[in-house]
Write a structure and sequence with these properties.
Largest sheet: 6 strands, mixed
Mean pLDDT: 75
Radius of gyration: 18 Å
Structural class: alpha/beta
Distance between the termini: 50 Å
Shape: globular
Length: 175
């Protein structure tokens, strides 16, 4: 077994090959053929938020709020998972942004991969089902127009309709 430093060095050196391997396994599992994908995020603490100093990842982490953790210093993990449990997309961001910013980055990199960055996954064939952390008509409209990502979210509290029309049509089509 390599030491931790060697492991991290190997991981950085073979990052592109590891990403290609993971994407190939996702293709073999026929993950992109599912009707929908669930998209959600979670806070990943990297150190105690009450400590002073910059920490060991000062360029990648910052302070953020999580309902599960409270205030934490770390990163925000965003995952897209299909109904059989295969992770189809993954993205990290600093802890402070809300869910919309990492989701937009993930949609952008899925639709238009950047040669200098690792691939985050492939675009979903169907809609992304999300929780209220991703709500917002403006964001959802932009994601659909620019990245082709259809996002189904519960209605906002002040909404008069119990479910948006597009969600009603999608549920009727699945049955």
């Amino acid at each position: 077994m390599p030491t931790r430093e060697q492991f991290h060095r190997y991981l950085r050196h073979h990052q592109v090959a590891l990403g290609a391997c993971v994407l190939h396994v996702v293709q073999l599992l026929a993950a992109p053929q599912c009707l929908y994908e669930a998209l959600d995020s979670s806070g990943i603490p990297t150190r105690d938020a009450k400590r002073r100093g910059a920490g060991w990842l000062p360029d990648l982490t910052d302070m953020g709020w999580s309902n599960r953790l409270g205030w934490y210093e770390g990163v925000h993990l965003l995952l897209a998972v299909n109904p059989i449990g295969v992770i189809t997309s993954v993205s990290f961001s600093p802890a402070s942004p809300n869910n919309q910013s990492p989701a937009e980055t993930c949609f952008a990199l899925c639709r238009h991969p950047h040669p200098g960055l690792a691939r985050v996954g492939a675009p979903a064939r169907g809609p992304y089902v999300v929780d209220k952390g991703f709500e917002g008509q403006v964001h959802q409209g932009t994601w659909g127009r620019v990245y082709g990502a259809q996002v189904l979210c519960p209605p906002q509290r002040q909404s008069r309709s119990p479910w948006p029309k597009r969600l009603q049509r999608w549920v009727a089509g699945v049955r």
